[in-house]
C-alpha cells in the first residue's frame, strides 16, 4: 500500500484534499511542509501532498522554494479544491470575548476583513496549519478561537460559531502531489481538467528583453502558459528564476525545441513535472 504524507494534522485542508483524491493508501501527517517533503526525499513515504497556491493569497513560497532548492522531486499531479474558512470555538463557548484567534498565516490573511470588523481586539496567532490551530483551541478553552474547516471542528470536538468567514467567495487552493521515484497513483474517479507541464527557466544574467525572449519561445509554438512566476535564486540580489506552467503534457517535439532555443540564449530549462490537474468539489457541511 502506498505511503502518502500530507501537511497535518488531520483537520487540515490538505488532509481534506488527500481524502478526496486518493482511493486508498497509508496516510501519514507531518507538522510542516518541509517535514513532509523531507520524508519523501528520504524515502519514508512514497508520495507527498502540500499546498502550492491560493486564489486569494497567491503562491505558497515555502513549498516552491523547498522544491527548487532543498529536494529533488517531481510534481506528478495537482488538485484544486474550494476553501471554506469557518470560525471554530470550544463547545462551551457562549459569545465571550475572544482573546486570541489561531490559524495558519494564509488562513488568517484570507479572513482579514472579517477579523478586522468583528474581532479587532483579538490577538492573531499563527500556527503551522489550520488543523494545529483547532488543536490549540480544544486544549485552551472558551476564550480563544481558530480559523479552519469543518473537518478540523469534527476532529477536535469544536463547533462552527460562524461559517464562511473568508473575505472572497472564490477561495480555492491548489495542492501539489510530489514523488521522488515515480509510482502510479490510485485515485478516485475525478475528471482530469487539463494536462499540465511545469518548467523552471533560469537566465545567465538580467538583460534587456530577457523575459520577452523566454516567453516568445513558447508563444510562436502556440503553447498556452497558465502561470509564470519569478522567484529569487538565493545567490544574490537580482538573480531570479521563472516557474512556468504550460497547459499541455510534455512531448518530444515542442518542449525540446523550447529548450534548445532558450539554451541558445544562455538560459537553462528544467522539467519539474508533467501531470494531470484535477478540480475537486468538497462538500462542507456546517455543524454546530
Describe this structure in words.
Helices cover 28% and strands 33% of the residues. The chain is α/β, with parallel strands linked by helices and 288 residues long. The protein folds into three domains: 3-83 and 171-181, D-Maltodextrin-Binding Protein, domain 2 (3-Layer(aba) Sandwich); 86-162, D-Maltodextrin-Binding Protein, domain 2 (3-Layer(aba) Sandwich); 192-276, ACT domain (Alpha-Beta Plaits, 2-Layer Sandwich). Strands 1, 2, 3, 4, 5, 11, 12, 13, 14 and 15 form a ten-stranded mixed sheet that branches. It has a five-stranded mixed sheet with strand order 8-7-9-6-10. A hairpin with a 7-residue loop joins strand 13 (225-232) and strand 14 (240-246). It is globular. Its EC number is 4.2.1.51. Keywords: Amino-acid biosynthesis, Aromatic amino acid biosynthesis, Lyase, Phenylalanine biosynthesis. Residues 199-276 form the ACT domain. This is Prephenate dehydratase.
List keywords for this structure.
288 residues, alpha/beta, D-Maltodextrin-Binding Protein, domain 2, Alpha-Beta Plaits, 10-stranded mixed sheet, 5-stranded mixed sheet, 9 helices, 28% helix, globular, aromatic amino acid biosynthesis, EC 4.2.1.51, lyase, prephenate dehydratase activity
Amino acid at each position: 500500500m502506498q505511503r502518502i504524507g500530507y501537511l497535518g494534522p488531520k483537520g487540515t485542508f490538505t488532509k481534506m484534499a488527500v481524502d478526496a483524491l486518493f482511493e486508498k493508501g497509508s496516510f501519514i501527517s507531518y507538522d510542516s511542509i518541509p517535514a513532509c517533503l523531507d520524508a519523501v526525499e528520504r524515502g519514508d513515504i512514497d508520495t507527498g501532498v502540500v499546498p502550492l497556491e491560493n486564489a486569494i493569497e497567491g503562491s505558497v513560497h515555502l513549498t516552491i522554494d523547498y522544491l527548487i532548492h532543498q529536494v529533488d522531486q517531481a510534481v506528478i499531479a495537482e488538485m484544486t479544491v474550494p476553501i471554506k474558512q469557518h470560525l471554530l470555538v470550544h463547545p462551551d463557548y457562549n459569545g465571550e470575548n475572544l482573546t486570541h484567534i489561531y490559524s495558519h498565516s494564509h488562513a488568517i490573511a484570507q479572513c482579514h476583513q472579517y477579523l478586522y470588523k468583528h474581532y479587532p481586539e483579538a490577538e492573531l496567532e499563527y500556527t503551522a496549519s489550520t488543523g494545529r490551530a483547532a488543536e490549540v483551541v480544544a486544549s485552551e478553552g472558551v476564550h480563544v478561537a481558530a480559523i479552519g474547516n469543518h473537518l478540523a471542528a469534527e476532529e477536535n470536538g469544536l463547533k462552527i460559531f460562524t461559517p464562511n468567514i473568508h473575505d472572497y467567495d472564490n477561495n480555492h487552493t491548489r495542492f501539489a502531489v510530489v514523488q521522488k521515484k515515480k509510482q502510479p497513483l490510485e485515485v478516485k474517479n475525478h475528471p482530469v481538467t487539463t494536462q499540465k507541464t511545469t518548467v523552471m527557466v533560469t537566465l545567465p544574467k538580467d538583460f534587456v528583453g530577457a523575459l520577452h525572449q523566454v516567453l516568445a519561445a513558447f508563444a510562436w509554438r502556440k503553447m498556452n502558459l497558465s502561470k509564470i512566476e519569478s522567484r529569487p535564486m538565493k545567490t544574490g540580489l537580482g538573480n531570479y528564476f521563472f516557474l512556468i506552467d504550460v497547459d499541455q503534457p510534455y512531448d518530444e517535439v515542442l518542449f525540446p525545441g523550447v529548450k534548445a532555443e532558450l539554451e541558445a540564449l544562455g538560459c537553462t530549462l528544467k522539467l519539474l513535472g508533467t501531470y494531470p490537474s484535477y478540480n475537486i468539489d468538497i462538500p462542507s457541511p456546517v455543524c454546530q
